Amino acid sequence: MADKIIERLNEVFQNVFDDEDITVDRDTTADDIEDWDSLEHIRLIAAVEREFGVKFTMKEVSSMKNVGEMIDIIAERG
Amino acid sequence: MPKTDFPFDFDALTDHRKRTKRELINDGSKRLKKKIAVLGGSTTNDLIKTLEIFLLAEGIEPEFYESEYNRFWQDAMFENAELKEFSPDIIYIHTSYRNIASFVPEVSDSAETVEQKINERYSYYEKMWQKLASDYACPIIQNNFELPPYRLFGNRDCYDIHGSVNFISELNRRFSEYARNNQGFYIADLNYVASCFGLDKWFDNQAWYMYKYACSLDAIPSVAYNLSHIIKSLFGKNKKVLALDLDNTLWGGVVGDDGVEGIEIGEETATSECYKAFQEYVKKQKSIGIMLTVASKNDHENAIAGLNHPEGVLRPDDFIVIKANWETKDRNLVATANEMDLGVDSFVFADDNPTERALVERSIKGIAVPIMDSPADYIRTIDRNGYFEVTNFSTDDLKRNDMYKANVMRSERSTEFADYTEYLLSLDMKGEIKPFSPVYIQRITQLTNKSNQFNLTTKRYTQPEIEAVANDEKHITLYGKLSDMFGDNGVVSVVIGEIKDSVCDIDLWLMSCRVLKKNMEYAMLDTLVSECKKRNIDTIIGHYYPTAKNGMVKNLFADFGFEKIKEETDGTTEWKLSISGYENKNNVIKVNTEE
User: Fold this and answer.
1) Do A18 and B211 touch (CB under 8 A)?
2) Which residue of B98, B469, B516, B528 has the lowest C-beta tally within 10 Å?
């Protein structure tokens, strides 16, 4: 399950940042991806929401620290 | 190529936006470079990036100035060196309901107080527009306001003086009034866009509180697309022609198989109503100057019979060119464009058949091919794509169809004469060639932005720029109008020359292709020379800057008797004419005879 999610997430990241070399893992944070600033974060969240058909709460968006936490929320909702 | 029209491909516009941008930039198109200042009342980052995609797709490469969050008013009203330096071609003010929510009158306010609050809020914006117009002399696009997310008074909100719906409607009314009375000022109708989108989907409160987005992320393509229509229209990128298929596009059924009595159009069935409504819509497009043509696989007589269906709205003479034959559609469209002296990229091709659409889209670069799958949605698809966005509307637009029709008659007449000069004389042409005057400023600006073929420098001007050269002693300006026995063509040629001591350097020389081969260019030159002589100018310098479209005027200056003095490797040439001993070249058009 979690593997499947990370695969799909990876594709979302690649599309949003237009970089096919991106590989994310649970520990990936905004510091690891050059273009991942606060504005791109909005875009990323929207793309993830569209991909998985979920909606993050305000609290979740502002408290997510890494990709792992994102995966956990998606897994919980899915 | 990524799909960048309506209905939207959200992947291309949002999730894959970076790639879409990269692909557009690398597609080899030549684009106009324009500077756009976005003064925002909310976060504008995503709006700008999405707008960029739409403009790139329209052949415009934008460079943006973006105000800090919610600093639109300060940016406009106070000393702003950065914006001055940027020197915008267009200023867009992205304000919304979020910027006026806290100014809605209190329930306890008296009628006078309410009136005063509306006046105050309106003049806050009006002062800003006036300041921007005087500081930057470029077109201004201002959003109006969308309806509110809730109504304190319920339905009463729309008429009670304390209601927010009433407050917004009143402000919007005044904004519209300002737009009506001020040239170079345009409203982006956010109110309509939001209504189309649906207010509940439009307002994403979470996106507001977290990111200060005035509307939801999903609504941004609609907002940006609507805005891109105004911008591309101002820079001469509107479509001009609607080329229509017949069977299952203008009526239901196949006229060749079903016969005229068998096709569906009228009030009889739901399907026939769809087609009638679409024909009415197309006829309205014609009334605002959009030119109609037919591209149909049919025997010509069947096509004409179908267009004469008693319940139909469009008639054969509503079309400038009717191609109903068995040639492929892409060839027919190119032939039609040639007959009309227009670029085929100014065409919209409406056809219900996906195979025909794919063929045309693949073989003709720049043509618009809307997806026409369901007859009930034909109107919406064409409407939302904003192909014919009306920003400036002149009486010429109203007459355009007649003028092109008259052209067809002229060319028929020309076959009656053995000698071409004799034919030209028989047209009884009258020209009016004079310095720019205020009544024609709008038309002149329009011509500088949309003439591509007979245009030596392809220099584009905004209306304030045209006004500035018109009032400058260091410039010679001329517009040329031409009429003949078949009708008035209106303003068809524009020349701007800059005076440098005893030299006149030609910045702009253009002519509408609808008056090609009438010797109008000679009449313009004659007048330019005489204007130069009045000012003791002895030399005229001309330039030809090659583009993809202006090959027809490559040798114009040679034809005029200029001497080539420079030629660059890219084909740019410079020409010189000494005007002592110049003899008038036009002897078929009577110029300025009517006073």
Assistant:
1) no
2) B516
